[in-house]
Write a structure and sequence with these properties.
It is globular, with a radius of gyration of 22 Å. With 480 residues, the protein is mainly α. It has one domain. The chain has 16 helices and no strands.
Length: 480
């Protein structure tokens, strides 16, 4: 199967699986918000924030750098992945052991502290299968990862449903995350053996060399957590659990959409890494088409959210979370900027600029923490939402400057006017019909957007499937 067809297949299968997983994630959020209420859901969101924190602590930059390394010609895939898998397991075990000592300093109820320890255990399995994702990326088989995550999400929703039906405790709701991660890990590990035989490997000299390359990305992961999730923890300390619940109901909607830029960049990253220095024209072509896909996605997300935020929150959280609609209208701009930040961050890693990436993210984290510390006490979740937008703007903006200055690349967007006017047509439609049936109007508005994209010829039918240029395909097939 040729590379372009393999990518198209992976995009379709991964997209369908991810969309279904997102739907299930939103269903689980809807069940949890209605079962636990604002305060209970705030506690749940706090536990998940610590889940992200544990991920940042044990990341060490292994995933991105190992994916980059195995994507290069002549790479010893088994040696790289076995060593990285071993390091990730050890780092996750360390986090699991120290997690009780971490939570003891926070003024949380005992059920929340218990939930945080369970989250640390869940991350042990999550981190194990995440490091294996590089194998699937390199072999253009991310559909297997998406299907594994979907299966795990199905199991999680079933456990949450049973916990609610039998009126079980908060701990059972949190434990659904642990079962989800265990099940997904088993599937991913099983499928990974088709491409490489992973085993524990203690090549300490190689560890030293690799960690020297990866540590800037690992520190970046901690920094990303600081500006991406620390606002939830700060809210949980400075404000009530109800405030955390209101903010998180809106934030969860966005979190379940950010899979898309991550998925696309995950598929494209090995190609960027292989071509960024070896085939400049191929790199530009792939990057520009990826950038266009992001813009095409962002426009309807912003327009639709601004007009339909109340319906979205009512569907997800119920009537008790009506305050979250205004928060969502702010956060959708942060979501748009996350797309671009992800884009430029990936290019920096592909271009061996991970140390500069650390500089970018560190600056963003300092701004985020400082402003949140100042504005959360006064403006609560509105302050946190506004600061998220500012932070993502800093990340995307400085990322663009660094990429342009060091790699002499800036994205070129074809027919931007056609995309803009298609979004405007969608906005006009929603302005007149936003008060009608939520599902009908939402679907119809997307059709209006697509129709005007076609009228303005803003999208060529072969742009996604031909995301790799013909030039250099044979060369990449040799390493894929």
């Amino acid at each position: 199967m040729r590379v372009a067809r393999k990518i198209a297949y992976n995009v379709v299968v991964s997209s369908v699986a991810k969309v279904l997983a997102t739907v299930l994630a939103l269903v689980s959020i809807g069940l949890i918000t209605r079962y636990l209420g604002k305060e209970g859901f705030g506690n749940y969101a706090t536990v998940l924030a610590f889940f992200s924190f544990f991920g940042a602590l044990s990341d060490l930059g292994l995933y991105s750098i190992s994916t980059r390394e195995i994507s290069r010609p002549g790479a010893d895939q088994e040696r790289i992945m076995s060593n990285m898998f071993t390091i990730r397991i050890i780092s996750s075990l360390v986090v699991l052991v120290i997690s009780p000592a971490i939570v003891i300093f926070f003024p949380y109820p005992i059920e929340v502290k218990y939930g945080i320890v369970v989250a640390a255990a869940a991350y042990l399995f999550s981190s194990a299968y995440q490091i294996l994702n590089g194998v699937f990326q390199k072999n253009l088989a991310m559909d297997k990862v998406a299907i594994s995550e979907l299966a795990g999400k199905v199991l999680q929703v079933i456990i949450i449903f049973l916990a609610i039906k039998f009126e079980l405790s908060f701990g059972w709701v949190i434990s659904s995350l642990l079962f989800y991660m265990i099940f997904s890990f088993i599937l991913v590990f099983f499928w990974s053996r088709r491409f490489v035989k992973i085993r524990l490997r203690f090549d300490f000299s190689y560890w030293k060399k690799f960690l020297k390359e990866s540590y800037p990305v690992g520190i970046s992961a901690i920094v990303i957590f600081m500006y991406f999730k620390l606002d939830t923890i700060l809210l949980s300390v400075m404000k009530s659990s109800a405030d955390v619940g209101i903010y998180s109901a809106a934030y969860k909607v966005l979190e379940n959409i950010t899979f898309f830029p991550s998925m696309i960049m995950g598929l494209i990253f090995p190609i960027m890494s292989q071509s960024i220095f070896a085939d400049r024209e191929k790199f530009k072509d792939v990057s520009n088409k990826t950038f266009k896909i992001f813009v095409l996605t962002i426009v309807p997300l912003i327009v639709g959210t601004l007009f339909l935020s109340e319906g979205i929150i009512s569907l997800i959280g119920g009537a008790g979370f009506s305050e979250s609609a205004a928060v969502l209208e702010i956060l959708v701009f942060a979501l748009a900027l996350i797309f671009f930040g992800n884009f430029f961050n990936s290019i920096m890693i592909a271009g061996n600029l991970q140390k500069k990436l650390l500089f970018v993210l560190s600056g963003a984290a300092i701004i985020n923490i400082s402003l949140n510390y100042l504005f959360i006490p006064r403006f609560s979740y509105f302050g946190a939402a506004g600061i998220s937008v500012i932070t993502e703007m800093v990340v995307a903006g400085i990322g663009f400057v660094v990429v342009y200055k060091n790699l002499k690349y800036k994205p070129v967007l074809e027919n931007w006017a056609g995309i803009f006017f298609s979004g405007l047509a969608m906005a006009v439609f929603l302005f007149f019909f936003q008060n009608q049936n939520f599902f009908v109007v939402g679907a119809a508005s997307v059709l209006v957007y697509g129709l005007f994209l076609w009228i303005f010829r803003a999208v060529k039918t072969n742009e996604i499937t031909s995301i790799i240029s013909r030039k250099g395909v044979e060369e990449y097939e040799q390493i894929a």
